[in-house]
Amino acid sequence: QDDDDNNNELRYATAGGGIVVFLLEIASLHxxxxxxIIFSEKPKExxxxxxxxEQRAGDRGGLFGAGGRFKGGVDPIMEKFNESISFDKxxxxxxxxxxxxxxxxxxxxxIISDEEVKQLVDGxxxxxxxxxxxxxEIKAGDEDxxxxxxxxxxxxxxxxxxxxxxxxxxxxxxxxxxxxWTVEAExxxxxxMATLLTAGANFAKEHIDVLMAGYTHxxxxxxxxxxxxxxxx
Length: 233
Fold this sequence. Notes:
The chain is built from nine helices and five strands. The chain has helices at residues 20-29, 43-60, 76-82, 85-88, 92-108, 114-132, 145-157, 170-206, 226-231; strands at 2-4, 7-13, 37-40, 211-216, 219-225.
C-alpha cells in the first residue's frame, strides 16, 4: 500500500523472498516501477503486520475484515446495512455440515494435517451443539452465518480455525449453504403439500353430494360437484 500520497513506494513485510515474483506481478499490473518495491525483513514490521491481521480478525469475526487501503473499523451504519446474519442464521446447520466436509477434503489431499482436521471437526461439532441448544451467541462483527461460525470456531480451537478457509471463498459457502437449505426446505414443503392433498381428498369424500355452480371466464356455468372442484387442485 502507499505510505502516503507523495510516496510511490510499495512496502511489504515478508519473512523471506517467497513472494517476490508475486509482488513483481502486482507492480506491473499497477504500472509501478519495480525499483519502488522495498522488501523488509525487520521483525518489528513483521510483528506489526501480524498484530494488524489479528486485530482485523477480532473486529470482524474471521477472515473478512477490512484491509488494504482501509483504516479503522467499519461504520456501524454500514455494518447494519451490510449484515445478513439476521436471516441467514437459519442456515447454521448447513454451514457447519459444509465446513466439516471441506475440512476433511483439504485434509485428504494433504493441505492440512490429520490432527488439524480433527481439531476443526471437533470444534465445529461444538459450534453445532451450541446452535442446537440455543446457546450460540451472535456478536458484533458477525456479518453473516459464515463469519459467525468461523469466529466461534477460532475462539474454541485457536488459530487452526483460520485454516478452514484455505482455498475457499465465502461465495462457495453461500452457494453450498443455500442449496443444502433449499433441498431440506423443499422436503418440508412437499410433506405439507401431501398433508394438504390428503385432507382435501378426505373432505371431498365427506361432501361428495354437495353441488355448486361451475365457473368459466368468471361467470356461473354448469352445476358441478363441490368435491370435483376441490380435487381439481
